[in-house]
Known about the structure:
This protein is α/β, with parallel strands linked by helices. It contains eleven helices and eight strands.
Amino acid sequence: MQRGAQKILITSQKGGVGKSTLSANLAAYFRQVLGRRTGLVDLDRQATSSKWFRGAEEACVADALYELELGASQGINALNASRLVRKAAEVNDLVVTDLTWNDLLPKEFFYDFHLLIVPCSLSSIEVDSTMDFLERFAHVLKSKTRTPPKLVIAPSRIREIDAYELMLSRVFNIEFFLAPPVNYSSDAQEYFGNTFIFNSTDTDTRQNFLDFAQAIGDLLSRIPLQPAIPQRLLSSIQHRDAGTVLDRFMLQRLANRRTDKKDLSGDAEKVSDDRLPPSLSQFVSSRVRT
Length: 290
Ligand SMILES: Nc1ncnc2c1ncn2[C@@H]1O[C@H](COP(=O)(O)OP(=O)(O)OP(=O)(O)O)[C@@H](O)[C@H]1O
Ligand SMILES: [Mg+2]
């Protein structure tokens, strides 16, 4: 792994789940709100995140945006994808990459990143297909010999939170962080190419995105660029601190896993409200939009 830049990959094999929306807005959040040198790498032919970013980022400097070359006949492949990410990482502290997963890419591509964010709605179909997708890469994500990216599942385009328990109640064989949900915003279309969600005049919409982005920032701040101790030990140290929403989700998940040990290989039982710690219950109810 390269020194210097922290690298986030936002991907899924599913279309329309919010990859480009999260990529453009997260990259802009790190640049404009946190003032970090951040590059956006758009590995999607549709170039949605770059169009959004270019239109809304007033001072879109040359080092901020990296796109596939137009007319490249072979499309996205391991060489041009890695080259663009490397180029962005040479001159930025943080790189956000938007990619619709393509099986032409080798699974090892994941090792280029510190954080792997997979957006997913709360519908059973989407949760199932996300898990199928991740299961295919389980051996990479659980590697003990190389450093895999930390996996974050990001509930996106959430209209109501009722189904959030579906996500909390599932038992997966891959360790992951569950991000605060990004709610459905009817303004998203209007903001495309004009402004970013964290600039919304609607307080709920703005705060909702900021909660998500801050949680990702917190997680990043606890990922060393070059771990000096084995990943296995690192995880236990990181999860001991219960300071953030992401931590609380993680602790809850570990607690569920202990309770539901028998179910590890299959679907988990439902987690009822009274099994959520008060802080998490409050967090979940505060996100309910009636
Ligand atoms: N939080 C949100 N609220 C409302 N609409 C959203 C939200 N996030 C994404 N959308 C809408 O959902 C659609 C798909 O979003 P987006 O382009 O970000 O997904 P994608 O995963 O990048 O899609 P593709 O696979 O086509 O690249 C767009 O119309 C977008 O405006
Ligand atoms: Mg897209």
